[in-house]
Amino acid sequence: MADFNESNVQEKRHAGMHAKKVVSNTIIYVILVLMSIIWLIPFIFIVLQSFRCESTSMTGYVFPQQWGFDNYVNLFSNTQFPRWFLNTFIIAVITAALQTIIVLCMSYTLSRLRFKGRKFLMNFMLILGMFPGMLTMIILYRVLADLGLTQGNSIPGLILVYVASSGMGYYVSKGFFDTVPKSLDEAARVDGANRAQVLFKVILPLSKPIVIYTLLTAFMGPWGDFVFASYIAHADPAGYNVATGLQWLISTPSFLSSNYTMFCAGGVVVAIPITILFMCLQKYYVEGVTGGAVKG
Q: Does the model's pTM come out above 0.70?
């Protein structure tokens, strides 16, 4: 009889714990859904406005009265948007490739090698990275101007600046490499492989999540940059990226009244590549972040 009562008590306890878990999970999901809706409202608004054809200026309603692709056609035929998009794509792809190589090499070096000044170098880069990049904008512009890499020739100048300090972003990648057993390196070294061969033929094939994470973050930075890109190519639309070009479309009140829906269409087109990348590579991105979030 005592065992029966005890089992009833345990069943009630488990039932109560299950009910609390269900209630807490429901509350969490409701909050997350509300946050997602609030977060998506501006994007939905931009998409809807990009298909509005009855007026090209800002209006007080959200849903278009006349739907069509006129804004997208005008964006590609009546502006330099194709060139701005190509400029941004070239900058982002080259920067992503070079940054990924530099970051992974730097991270592997700091993870595996022990040399004099290693701790000082890591601390120095950490402290240096705390200073905002805007502090160097004036001197960087003067250097790039002296090299002829501003305005219409801003593409190589922007690539140079984006890549120059990429080694300082080693934190997450180093944390990931710290989780890879060093016995793999030792076995490859015994077989005669040098450090570069160990990295590119042994470690990186096992580190797909952190490679993809590094590529994505390196690609996203130049793709969405506005402040520095507009500063370097401020006077020549031929050197604009998409962010600077779209801002130029609505930079004056007259442009805002005539190009607003075209600006929204440009925002949708710019968001498509990043959205596709994240949808295809989200699994590896999350694994790279969680795998690198360890104490190194």
A: yes
